[in-house]
Every structure is written in structure tokens, then in C-alpha cells.
């Protein structure tokens, strides 16, 4: 096998090489698109509050995958309202994820 910049691609058949090239280009395009939209740098929230003990909580997931629980909601509606309101933006800003 001849080694190329792409490893041992030359050992693959021509149809497989073309397919591999197309898939790599699509993945690269998707990653660049996500980076341009800053999706990879955003905190995401599970939109479904969870009942825990006497209260409700939300789960925030950082870009690194680490999760943080946001607690202190007396009702499910209060948690949902927090997500849509200015307190959520203030929470994000305090952690450096909002302007």
C-alpha cells in the first residue's frame, strides 16, 4: 500500500475513495457551518423541567458536555417561564455565554 496524506486511502477502490471524499467534505462543511453559527460555543437547555423532591429543576449543558442543574423553581410553569425570560439571559451572561 502506498501511504498518502490521508493515510492508506490508496488501498481503497476508486468508488470508495470518491464516497469517502464526499463524506469528508460534507462533514467539514457541517462543522464549519456550526462554527460560523457559534452552535459549538452555546449552552443548551433541556426544555423539559424535571420534578425533584418538592421543586423543579432545569438542566443546562455547556459546550464541554458538563451539565449544571438550575434549581429553585416551585412549579413547572415557573421553570419554563425562567427559560423564556430575562433571568435566563442574566444567568448566561454571568457565565460568559451572553452579551
What is the makeup of the main sheet?
A: 4 strands, antiparallel
User: How many H/I helical runs?
Assistant: 3
Uncertain stretches of 5 or more adjacent residues: 34-40
Helix/strand-derived class?
alpha+beta
- Cα-based radius of gyration, to the nearest Å: 22 Å
Number of strands: 4
Shape: elongated
Helix content: 40-55%
The domain count comes to: 2
As a percent range, the share of strand residues is: 15-25%
What is the CA–CA distance across the termini?
53 Å
SSE pattern, N- to C-terminal: HEEEEHH
Characterize the structure shown.
This protein has two domains: 31 residues; 53 residues, no CATH class. About 7% of the residues have low confidence. Strands 1, 2, 3 and 4 form a four-stranded antiparallel beta sheet that branches. It is 41% helix and 19% strand. It has 99 residues and is α+β, with helices and mostly antiparallel strands. It has three helices and four strands, in the order αββββαα.
Summarize the entry for a quick read.
The protein has three helices and four strands.
SSE diagram, text form:
Layout: H1 14-36, E1 44-45, E2 50-52, E3 55-61, E4 67-73, H2 76-84, H3 86-94
Antiparallel strand pairs: 1-3, 2-3, 3-4
Please tag this protein with its features.
elongated, 4 strands, alpha+beta, 2 domains, 99 residues, 19% strand
Amino acid at each position: 500500500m502506498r501511504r498518502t496524506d490521508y493515510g492508506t486511502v490508496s488501498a481503497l477502490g476508486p468508488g470508495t475513495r470518491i464516497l469517502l471524499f464526499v463524506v469528508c467534505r460534507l462533514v467539514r462543511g457541517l462543522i464549519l457551518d456550526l462554527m460560523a453559527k457559534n452552535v459549538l460555543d452555546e449552552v443548551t437547555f433541556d426544555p423539559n423541567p424535571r420534578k425533584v423532591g418538592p421543586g423543579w429543576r432545569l438542566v443546562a449543558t455547556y459546550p464541554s458536555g458538563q451539565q449544571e442543574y438550575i434549581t429553585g423553581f416551585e412549579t413547572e410553569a415557573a421553570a419554563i417561564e425562567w427559560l423564556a425570560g430575562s433571568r435566563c439571559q442574566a444567568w448566561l451572561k454571568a457565565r460568559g455565554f451572553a452579551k
